Amino acid sequence: MDRFELTVQRRVNGAWPVVAVGQPGDGSPPVRTEGRMRLDPAGLTTVDARAYGAALGRALFADDVALAFARAQAAAAERLHVLLSVEDGEIKSYRWERL
Question: Domain total for the chain?
């Protein structure tokens, strides 16, 4: 099973460190990528679920994390299972299911 695991860590200097680990289903070693999520909570005040999810997605899947996700999608044999872990209590209650 191909997996892409994302961990959003506690905020440091105005941004949240993000660790992405791609786990190929073919037994190849995992690929680790690090990035930073910059998110303005004021941008999440919309009631539109699509806009809310898009704002979260743009923040989470930025720079190297976006590239790692695209590579994992392209390499996945069938489905790519995405797992998200949010460690920072400040943003844990966000509606992550709308990504």
Answer: 1
Q: pLDDT tens digits, the chain, 99 residues: what are they?
A: 799 999 999 999 999 999 999 999 888 899 999 999 999 887 788 778 898 999 999 999 999 999 999 999 999 988 999 999 999 999 999 999 998
Q: Which residues contact 9 (CB under 8 A, 6 or more apart)?
A: 16, 17, 18, 19, 87, 88
Domain that holds residue 29: 2-98
Residues 8/37, Cβ–Cβ less than 8 Å: yes
- Kindly give, in sequence order, each residue whose CB lies less than 8 Å from that of residue 58, ignoring residues fewer than 6 positions away: none
